[in-house]
Amino acid sequence: MKKTVSYILLLLVVVALIFGLDQWRQQQHRSLPGTNEQYYKIVPLNLPDSLEFSGEMVPLDLFYVREALDRELSVNTYWHSSTLQLIKKSNRWFPMIEKTLAENQIPDDFKYLALIESGLANVRSPAGAVGYWQFLKGTAKDFGLEVNKEVDERYHVQKSTKAACDYLMESYAKFGNWTLTAAAYNAGNKGVTRQMDRQKSASYYDLLLNEETARYVYRILAMKLIFENPTNYGFYVEEEALYPQIPTRTVVVDGPVESWADFSVTHGISYKVLKYFNPWLRQVYLKNKKKKTYHILIPESPFDRTHEELILSENGIMKN
Fold first, then answer.
1. CA-CA distance, 119 to 112, in Å (whole number)?
2. Domain boundaries, the chain
């Protein structure tokens, strides 16, 4: 009898331990930040009831619009490493981009266009498009950017942002619609106009387009949703993890420079850091035969050299 009672008591203890452990696990899950379930399983994402792009409503009542947005939102939410890096980098570059967009009457949502175009890096596409805004050489020159062997202002973030604003405003003047303006940045004004005429439609959401352009605006919208409410999609990024803005001073150059490496040493930085802040300098020298004036950015002293390795990995430093 005593053995039976002991076995029963032991069984009750085991059951209590199992139940207690399960309760503790549930409590730990409840104590995690946020309300989503992404901490322990991959789940479908909830789409918003309403959404707008640059003040224009997205027709989420259309099934194909909802499904297209769902696709891009899922891709960018669950592509954790890439989206996490973009969130970190945006802290450094968005303030300048936002300011330039505002000064040129371009809606703030277009900062996400730069994000999906280049990942906020000075990349070169297979077609030869360059920089944060992915300008082709001819288009860049049309909008006032200098492009030659010594200087390529497509790599100049601020100047290329201003050129992009001019390009976007020209497209908006044609379409009178910011959503079509965004699509035309990918497909070209002529490409979008051709499809509008063929299909007798003036709405991006109703046009049958090539896959890249068909996904383009939805990618922008997905990034907007994630960046405006990152915790809703499982991104918890502490402020100290964000890439900081680095104060700079300007050195005016209005003549030739025999060696940018020597110039760098003179100003207390490495050539590598000079190229980070001035990636539009395309040679190790500057002949500057036309005696143009250039503004060279130098990080304020004292320069925290711990930033040096960080910044090289996230802005696409190019070879000479």
1. 9
2. 1-31, 52-241, 248-313
